[in-house]
Amino acid sequence: TWTHPANTPKNATAGESSWNNGSWWVGDNGWFGSNSNRIWHSTDRGATWTSTRVTLQNCLSVSVDDDAQHGIAVFRPVTSATGTVVGKKGMLQTTNGGTTWTPMKLPLAGCNPGTVRYVHGLHMAIVTTDSGIYRSTDNGTTWSPIGIPTTFAAHDGDLSTFAANGGLTIS
């Protein structure tokens, strides 16, 4: 049998859920998006959660820089159990730890974003898309391809990043 953990969000709506690997932690702070129009945030290692209403639905990935203030969330439409397409593609950013989230431009006009990850210690965000993988060193104001052909559709998988000894590994 399953029991409801004591520290899960208490005011989630019926049917609200998140995606595997869609959460991000910086110290005691954690964030995750859901299939509703909300991004959840905890400042006490998940003991309590608050949510912020956002303009997009189906947040597949959230990542926040080491400063716990600047972050990016990725959204994509999904097909419901009834075959209806719900939501639209887009990205939102925060500059205040997730109190507010505002629209930002996609790395490439019209692309479908997949997963976003900040690289610890580098103040760099990496995002996968159906048109390659891009990086930003200014919290998503500008994006540049990282050398993987822009014809490579990388938007359906997860993303891991690791920086050490002056190098960066992305898988």
Radius of gyration: 16 Å
Helix content estimate = under 10%
- Unreliable segments of 5+ consecutive residues: none
Question: Order of strands across the biggest sheet?
Answer: 1-2-3-4
How would you characterize the overall build of this protein?
The protein has 171 residues and is mainly β. The strands form 5 sheets. It has a 4-stranded antiparallel β-sheet with strand order 1-2-3-4, with no helix packed on it. It is globular. The mean pLDDT is 84.
SSE topology sketch:
Blueprint: E1 23-26, E2 29-33, E3 38-42, E4 50-53, E5 59-64, E6 71-75, E7 78-79, E8 85-86, E9 90-94, E10 102-104, E11 113-119, E12 124-129, E13 132-136, E14 144-145, E15 161-164, E16 167-170
Antiparallel strand pairs: 1-2, 2-3, 3-4, 5-6, 6-9, 7-8, 9-10, 11-12, 12-13, 13-14, 15-16
